[in-house]
Amino acid sequence: MPYRVLTLNNISPRGLARLPRERYQVGADVERPDAILLRSAELHGVDIAAEVRAIGRAGAGVNNIPVAQMSARGVPVFNTPGANANAVKELVLAGLLLAARNIGPAWLFARGLSGDDEAIDAAVEQGKKRFVGFELPGRTLGVVGLGAIGVEVANSALALGMKVLGYDPQLTVQRAWQLSASVEQALSLEDLFARSDAISVHVPLNEATRGLVNATRLALMKEEGTILNFARAAIVETQAVIAALDAGRLHAYVCDFPNRALKDHPRVVTLPHLGASTLEAEENCAIMVAEQVRDFLENGNIRNSVNYPEAVLPRVPNTTRLAVANRNVPNMVGQISTCLAAHDINIADLLNKSRGEYAYTLIDADGAVGEELLAQIRAIAGVLSARIV
User: For the chain, does the N or the C end have fewer beta carbons within 10 angstroms?
Assistant: First the structure.
């Protein structure tokens, strides 16, 4: 029986092509799906079918997915960190230049000119002094969040001649290898705000990052600074930014999230959520998420899940693979092993990983695992899901 994958948005055909038709039934009308692929579709408040084993988001943010609910069901939620990094990076750099050269208001001024060419020339000479900007070399960019996007932004800003400060207490070894040694570590967010001419935020939205850019931190910035937000709207407190702009402390705010308070402000450039809106980014995200979900469905492997640990185990030939998601409690592996031993089944290989309050186990067993044994494993207190892969 083929795997069933429900798509809730238009997913790039190049991504869906990674799910071979002979093994996958894919579409917007699939019933009782094994997995869901989506981009921006809202899943909060939606009755997600009991058969769903995985949810894949073709993008980085997962605020539209009830992650906690899926975690409690043993369902990994996948995203695609880095697949749209270049697209967002290019828009951040564009935002820096838009702000530095006052391109938005200057363009509006030029479009509003009237009269013959002589009158337009005279108005240009008279009006251009209002849009005098500044150059980027020698100025300091503070980058909050050094994931895939933040690292690319930091490295590219260095190439433009800027000094770069970075802050990320959860910087991974992988990203540290990718980050230029010329990026200086900020000691704290307050240190970064106090030393930066411009700040770009690249963090997920959660309780710790909501309102990260606020009145207190904006007051620490050098005058005529710039804030760039291509992450999530609520990371920046709108009214605090507007107050700083109106007081002349901030030079500009460039963001991807228009609202009534921001869209007409003369020192704000708002874009219609264009961060990952390139054909290349959409294709990269779709390919990445399709491959991750396929590897999970067919092999039980977990890569780039936001709620379960990274768990990749090469298959031992001629074995039966068992995948178990459970709460991270003591002796879970021991109980599963005892169940297998009671059925005279040997373990050829085993991988157990934990992440916070959840854990995940892959077992390659010598011999068949029947429904009776599977039911016994599912009955263990703390087991959230168990399946033969």
Answer: N
Two structure tokens written together for 146: 């050094």
Q: Rounded CA gap, 230 and 123, in Å? A: 35
Residue 24 near residue 35 (C-beta atoms within 8 A): no
**Alpha carbon distance 135, 267 (integer Å):** 18
The amino acid that residue 162 corresponds to is M
Apex 13 CA angle, 11 and 18, nearest 5 = 100
Q: What's the CA gap between 148 and 60, in Å, rounded? A: 10
CATH number at 224 reads: 3.40.50.720
What would the two tokens of residue 158 be?
A: 């260095």
Question: Which residue in 267, 239, 248, 273 sits closest to 108, CA to CA?
Answer: 267
**Is 207 in the same domain as 247?**
yes
β-pair partners for 184:
165
Question: How far, in Å, CA of 194 to CA of 123, rounded?
Answer: 39
Place of tokens 């970075």: 166
pLDDT tens for 53-62 read 999 999 888 9
Mean pLDDT of 137-153: 97
For residue 365, the domain's CATH number is: 3.30.70.260
Please give the residue range of the domain that contains residue 291: 1-84+278-308
Residue 207 CB burial class (10 angstroms; 0-12, 13-18, ≥19): exposed
pTM of the model: 0.82
CB atoms within 10 A of CB 111: 7
- Residues 238, 77: Cα–Cα separation, whole Å: 30
- Measured distance CA(158)–CA(152) in Å, rounded: 10
d(CA 363, CA 53): 18
